Amino acid sequence: MALLALASITTAMASSSSAAAGPTGLSYPSGFDMKTSWANLSPYTDASGFNVSKGFPLECELSQVHVLHRHAQRYPTQWPLDGGGMENFAQKLVNYTKKHSNKKIGPGPLAFLNDWEYMLGLNTLLHTGAATEATSGAQFWSQYGRLLYRAEHGDAAWDPSLNVYPNGTARPKPTFRTTSYPRILESARWWLSGFFGNTGANSSYSEYNLTIIPEVEDFNNTLSSTDSCPKGMEPGDNAAGVFASSLVKNARKRITAHLPEDLKLDTLDILAMFSMCPYEYATLGQSSFCALFTEQEWRDFEYYIDLQFYGSYGFGSPSGRAQGIGYVQELAARLQSKLIRSSDSSINHTYDDNTKTFPLDQPLYMDMSHDDIIVSVLAALGLDYFKYGPHGLPVSVAHAPPRNFNLNQMTPFGARLFSEIWTCPKDVSFKNLQVQKYKNPDLSSKSDTTDYIRFVLNNAPVPLYGLKVCDGSVNGFCKVKKFLSAIPNLNKEAMYQEACYGDYNITSQVGNGQPRKP
Predict the structure, then answer these.
(1) DSSP of 63-80, one letter per residue?
(2) Domain of 259?
(3) By CB count within 10 A, which of 32, 246, 314, 330 is most buried?
């Protein structure tokens, strides 16, 4: 990896800190990989697992897959704790250099700051992000697309002739969805390019239709639901702000010991230095900032971001469930082959009441979106595996506690949530799953079959406890009829109107993604 090409500065940085802090550097005695603690800024890797067995039931037919996908590597946003903070840090160094032209900023381990320049832009999808999306689309074709569209021996890539109903008649051209935000739209195009796999490396636009839903303030869009649900995000920002002081305490002492006394760094500056590492890695392939922090500090950095997301978009937010319920309602509508005539959530029924923009009965659906949407959908589904407790994630702690809510596992760049639909014969067993499925059986003519749904997050099946109608499910497989029976209650628990527009003032984390107990 490019990170390993950097020279270690372990000895110099550790010498100015307590022994308990541990070494800094690019590699650690424990074998710790810092990229696993970059939270939602981590490059994509499959999740290590959520305590549910992976694999496929051989006797079942894979009949549908619904993909909710995150955009991939990008430049930072303008948010003060993201790009705004890094720009301010860079400007602080520029201003200091102008006032002290004959004075170096950083001797020793911070010597790179003497020649460092801020090279990042704002919001743009990076080439590394385009590659992540194209790879994801290609991998999906290999793992799922070949089964869904029944590719035969020698069929290396998609061909329109594969897009047929079981009786052999042609299906309409597939339609996929994205928001209008440039990095989301571009991510969708790159994913689809990978899926359709043009051998000439030219555009795949002719193979599909793309519904582009505006991502603007006060506009209903399930793929950017915070635009139409303005409340409930304060608890995450507050929790992260409290923990930030613990996160930066030792690092600031250690780093400022190598800086001129009149160059003062505050909490936001140290947070910016943390963030420079993953962003420069995504942009430039390496970053000198990465070697400045200890293993524990990187683990705490991830927790700092986890706190913000949990309290703003997940079970810790009073609108966490509400932000994700619109997508859950759309999933239910697709499973029932129904258009959506009206909306009491973030759904835009102008789009969802039209088969041209909200098609029914496709084998594959793909919606390109954001990391926070995946988090809120998991909350809207009531999947308690990702819930910490009645008061949210701990805030007044010295270090990150053990937890199941880890953004590195949930929403790295290019994250993907699959809702698999399996049609299975009577008395199927989900206990002994196979790691490889070469053929997709055609059960369309069979009468005694049952449809099952399974949620797979970053190629790891998700446990269903918390979704009470699916109690007793084996390895994450729940009957579709049972899942659909839960939708009215999930709608009720989301409390959309109250959560998004209610007269409440909640500043601390809640326990169940709601503004109050039902």
Answers:
(1) EEEEEEEE--SB---S-T
(2) 83-122+234-311
(3) 314
